[in-house]
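As a warm-up, study this chain.
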Amino acid sequence: MWDSSMFLSTLTPKFYVALTGTSSLISGLILIFEWWYFRKYGTSFIEQVSLNHISPWIGGGSSDSGNGSDSNGSGSSGQQIPECKVWRNPLNLFRGAEYQRFFWATSKEPLTYYDMNLSAQDHQTFFTCEGDAGNAEYEIMQTAWRERNPMVRIKAAHSALEINQDCTPAYILLAEEETTTILEAEKVLKTALKIAEANYKKSQLMQHQSTIHESIHRRDTNALIYIKRRLAMCARKLQKLKEAAKMFRDLTKEIPPIMNVLNIHENLIECLLEMQAYADCQAVLAKYDDISLPKSATICYTAALLKARAVADKFSPDVASKRGLSAAEMTAVEAIHRAVEFNPHVPKYLLETKPLILPPEHILKRGDSEALAYVFFHLNHWKNVEGALNLLHCTWEGTFRMLPYPLERGHLFYPYPTCTECADRELLPVFHDVSVYPKKELPFFILFTAGLCSFTALLALLTHQYPEPMGLMAHTVLNWISLPFYFFKERLESVLPCNLLQQLSRI
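Now compare it with the structure written out below.
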């Protein structure tokens, strides 16, 4: 049998220093990698490997087939949980007149390349078509949206206008990026509107001649609706509220596919709230807050605001705790819980416990990006309703008691999606602290690795400073650990013959 005491007696303090130092280095590298992986993907790498690769080998795999959970939190078992989808922000700002001015003031980029790339794809889809082949000005605009440098994009638009003064996409790009005020943007868009209307009427007469002419007409329709919407947004920003509301109402009656992407009814709701036309806003909300239509933070939180408006001015948490909630107050609180369940990131921005930034051009529903886009424009509407923020402050956290496991089961909506954090980090600038729900705790492996790294580093330091006492301590600890093995060895030798191993080797 192997005699460990002879081996231990030959070890020197330098060996213990090298051993603990090497262990500390390795565990430190593992800790750094685990922390980076957790920050990027929201989970532990070791845990993922254990669950996905090691656990199936030892029979610990899940019995699910990977096609999704049967429970969707809304009572139906046959539907799949929807995946995260990026939507265009209905209230997106102008790059030149708003985003660029923010960059000049702070030297911080308000938009990410991922967000701008999505916008470039949208513009290529809306404002170009297969009928543009052979037209130099439209071919220039096809590539202009993809340029990263804004000056290159602006120069390309001017080049397209030199070839054809009726190139609508070029005017759109200049209104979005070259103008530095809303008044200038409105002026360029009005010029573009005249040209877009003429192009629309021209292509409308020829749309049935071929598929090429049909695609050109679709392109001209998209450009016309987009310009009208941006003009209405300019009117809203310039406080021409009645004019903006009328333009938004007219646009909501249109039916082209682009209307499903722009969500103009959210612009109309925000404009009516600014006018404090709450009855009209309720009428619009009743049309779009339907069980068959997709929800948004604007829909859910506007419904909560209108219900809170009826009771918020007289609401007192002390009185409510004594006598209980009235029917109207209960309705308002349930609406707040519904809204918070849909997007739990909004209340912190509304209550101003988390700082706002400029919203991105694209949002992820139920994510931090949607919360920013909503609160950026709707915070004043909540402040205009006396007591609404106080009611929200007193009741919104009660939602989480109703949803102890939001990633597994919801109450009124699907379980909260797990992909929002990664998508929001791509959409939002690096200087913004992305809101995460539910707040992830540090995985066990990161805590274990951090403890191991700290412990071995401490051992290495003590061994370097006090080599003799630490060597003696290590020798004593190893002797204690080896005692059970010595005991087992003695019991084995008392039962088995001494020459058993020799006889087995001969056999």
